[in-house]
Specification:
Elements: H1 2-20, H2 29-49, H3 58-76, H4 78-84, H5 90-101, H6 105-117, H7 122-144
Helix pairs in contact: 2-7, 3-7, 4-5, 5-7, 6-7
């Protein structure tokens, strides 16, 4: 585990150096985000459901999905904590709820779970990742989007 933490620290240091040298700047953040969202995250999902790793079946899949939805529902209770903190306007509540509900599981969770528990557990992370991304790109998009725009499905 110490080796994995050292790798994370080195990756963070590379990110800081790249940012300070101007290689990563405001002009190319959109392209890097598109690369992550359109290619890296789907690749992580596909790599974890293919191959010789164990697969979830039937009731086991339902248990994992139920646990993920319950966790997400509990996280959505952040709305109440936002109200308790005095945020009354949707301009403040929606981003606060979205940012405290959806985590960076794809970037940190997948490598960390792989390092701690091995490749056999990645199938569970994949279920969490699928549900989290589905909710983020629907509910999260609505939370962080333009309040005056209609985001209904066509």
């Amino acid at each position: 585990m110490l080796n994995q933490m050292l790798i994370f620290v080195l990756l963070i240091a590379v990110g800081v150096i790249v940012r300070k040298q101007g290689i990563l700047n405001v002009n190319n953040l959109t392209q890097i985000s598109a690369l992550l969202v359109n290619y890296a995250i789907p690749a992580v999902i596909l790599s974890s459901i293919t191959g010789d790793a164990p697969h979830l079946r039937g009731s086991e899949l339902l248990h994992v999905c139920g646990a993920v939805f319950l966790t997400m529902a509990l996280m959505l209770l952040n709305f109440l904590s936002a109200l308790a903190l005095g945020y009354r306007k949707a301009l403040f509540i929606k981003p606060l709820v979205c940012l405290s509900t959806f985590t960076s599981i794809a970037m940190i969770g997948v490598p960390l779970i792989y390092a701690l528990y091995g490749p056999d557990t990645l199938i569970y992370v994949t279920v969490v990742l699928l549900i989290s991304n589905l909710l983020f790109f629907t509910f999260g998009f609505w939370c962080l989007g333009d309040p005056g725009r209609d985001y209904s499905f066509s």
